[in-house]
Amino acid sequence: MVDGTPAGRLRWVWSGELEAIDESNFGRALRGMRLRAGLSQRELAERIGSTQSAIARMEKGQAEPKFCTLEKIAEALSRDLLVHVRR
Fold first, then answer.
1. Is the predicted pLDDT of residue 75 greater than 50, yes or no?
2. pLDDT tens digits, 6-26
3. Are 9 and 23 in contact (CB under 8 A)?
4. Closest CA relative to residue 69, chosen from 52, 50, 82
């Protein structure tokens, strides 16, 4: 465990966000960033080549995005996706 995060857990850091985002708060963070960008779920979905229902599932914590989806979301929201690999 490093910084309170168990080994093997996924954490995302979005440029401009104060805290790392993990599985437990990803949906809430995604929704907040989407709303701050002034986008509906449908608009974000169109920007990343997905569906409104897929965005809704991610925001509800019912679906985990693949890394390639995280990259598309970051680009659509004009954010940097920082990946930190540590032991």
1. yes
2. 444 555 555 555 566 666 778
3. yes
4. 50
Question: And the tokens for 42?
Answer: 């449908």
Q: Angle CA(37)–CA(38)–CA(43) in degrees, nearest 5?
A: 95
Which residues are CB-contacts of 47 (< 8 A; sequence separation ≥ 6)? 39, 72, 76
Rounded CA-CA distance 20/18 in Å is 7
Token pair of 48 as six digits: 């990343």
**CA–CA gap between residue 75 and residue 39 (Å, rounded):** 13
Q: Which helix (H) or strand (E) holds 65?
A: none
* pLDDT tens, residue by residue, 46-69: 999 999 999 999 999 899 889 899
Write down the pLDDT at residue 76: 96
